[in-house]
User: Fold this.
Amino acid sequence: MRNKTDRLAIISILENGRRITLTYQQLFDCVAKCAHGLKNLGISKGDRVVGFVTNSHEAVIAMLATTSLGAIWSSCSPDFGVNGVLDRFGQIEPKLIFACTDYFYNGKHINCIPRLKEIQREIKSLDAMVTFSSKSSVSSTLEVRLALSHYVKIMPKILILFNYHLIILCTLCIPQGQRASRNALFTQQVDH
Assistant:
């Protein structure tokens, strides 16, 4: 995030026609504010943070903020069923979830709140959920939800080693009885 210019970094166009653009400076500011909020929520190196998110600017901001702290990011699409989300996220024991409360698909507005309530209830490791809507603007999404009151100019710097986990791209569906042993294995890998 060295490039803090007014050049466009992200152009996000949702199915409902909503268009969001962020310059590199705006992206830097949003990521810094989000990282500050995550740090205030106790997120640190090695913690798992997940996103139940669409391919949106919020997902990019959340992922960059998470990894800037040395935490590990994983995500899935909100069109996953509850069991698919629990299979993916339950085994990595996230401390925080970023989640969209709704999205548009094939001309339809999809409400995610009932599934989010179930996901939050079932993943016992969650300490916090940060939500945002496809109908809100950049200034009212992650920044406000994280209750940030101060502008953060300098992002936290952390040394990331090449053998350190940053992103979990895919997880296997694991039968219920085998989840505990898989979680122990993952925790051992992160600790080393």
